[in-house]
């Protein structure tokens, strides 16, 4: 599939089938967001290559943090906090909710008043990479900013220098109803 075809398929979808994603597919999405595609550089840019933005993964089984260097999910806790990743009803049912968290302590050479803006740009690039990978693989996704950040940060155990920038819900698209008939 060409990049033009992938861009044509990319759209925000807010309904998801309940099935969990296979781990290989989740791994590909995380690599698209923050994986290394060359020595010490990731698939998405960051200011001065600070790599300040971490990707957390909220699943039914618990909360994880993606370790890009090892391409592993590190367990943070065993709680299902998907319902806290946004204010919309559908987030609790999405099989995967990614949470993009900037650690401002890692931002070298960036003026303090520019840190959140630079980190937000990096997170937007990461989220777009995920959206394009979802489009290529036939998955539904939607980036989101409507988040009770204080409540979610507390549930995640984030530190003072860590800031939630955005979240992204992902899953298999909900199958269309037979013959277009609604219930």
Automatic annotation (TrEMBL):
Residues of the Nitroreductase domain: 7-171
InterPro entries in the record: Bacteriocin_Proc_Enz, Nitroreductase, Nitroreductase-like
UniProt cross-references to CDD domains, sorted A to Z: McbC_SagB-like_oxidoreductase
Classification via SUPFAM superfamilies: FMN-dependent nitroreductase-like
Gene3D superfamilies listed in its UniProt record: NADH Oxidase
UniProt-recorded Gene Ontology molecular function terms: oxidoreductase activity
Annotated Pfam families: Nitroreductase (PF00881)
Superkingdom classification of source: Bacteria
Name of this chain's protein: SagB/ThcOx family dehydrogenase
Protein species of origin: Massilia eburnea
